[in-house]
């Protein structure tokens, strides 16, 4: 169940979008809810607040000037079925890669939202946790 409470967000992402409706369809498929839609002076949506899990918030704001591929955000998906996330996003027609195992002991799904933002869902591979710790231990402390 998604936490719908209002709390101080220690970090959030603001993404410019050209079509709030298309953004809403994409992010709902990715497991987010629309927590709030804030209108501007004429009543048109000025912002949609999406939330997936506690502290996984996106503020989508209308903008006419977006450079595709200029924004990327990664969300932890530790308790989620990455295959199901990938399929739900693919059903919207969005480009999706994965699930793919990475060299740094995670499995990732990478999707491109309707405005060209790269959205990554990442999950540690628990069966390789000991190997990952050994890898981390090879780095020198600064």
TrEMBL record:
InterPro entries: Glyas_Bleomycin-R_OHBP_Dase, Glyas_Fos-R_dOase_dom, VOC_core. Residues 9-124 form the VOC domain. This is VOC domain-containing protein. It comes from Corynebacterium genitalium ATCC 33030.
């Amino acid at each position: 169940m998604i936490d719908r409470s209002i709390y101080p967000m220690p970090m959030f992402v603001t993404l410019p979008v050209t079509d709030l409706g298309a953004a809403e369809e994409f992010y709902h498929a990715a497991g987010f809810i629309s927590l709030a839609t804030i209108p501007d002076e004429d009543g048109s949506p000025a912002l949609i607040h999406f939330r997936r899990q506690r502290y996984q918030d996106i503020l989508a704001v209308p903008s006419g000037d977006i450079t595709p591929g200029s924004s990327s955000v990664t969300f932890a998906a530790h308790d989620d079925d990455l295959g199901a996330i990938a399929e739900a996003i693919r059903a919207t027609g969005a480009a999706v890669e994965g699930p793919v195992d990475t060299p740094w002991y995670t499995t990732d799904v990478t999707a491109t939202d309707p405005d060209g933002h790269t959205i990554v869902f990442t999950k540690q591979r628990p069966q390789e946790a000991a190997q990952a710790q050994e890898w981390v231990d090879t780095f020198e402390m600064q």
